[in-house]
Amino acid sequence: MREQFEQKYTYPALEIAYLAIEQKFQSLHLGSALIEEIALMARNQRYAGCVFLTVRAWHTSDYSAVGFYEKNQFAKLTPVPQMDVWPMYKTIWPEE
Question: Which pTM does this prediction carry?
């Protein structure tokens, strides 16, 4: 699937531009709940198709959100080192 996604095709996707949970609330799994709610809303809306959620996960030597997104079933694409981000995606429709 990753190889197909990285090809020069266009897929209907919803990008999570910014997601943050205050540190004292991070152990409550609120970020994961928000991602699941976003996926549910994207699957159930009637006006446009959406196959993937995408994100540019912050990734530096001091902090990385990549592990959080991997725990939430996002897959890595090619990193963008000059921007300190790692593009990732999650399929929100079951494969047939």
Answer: 0.81
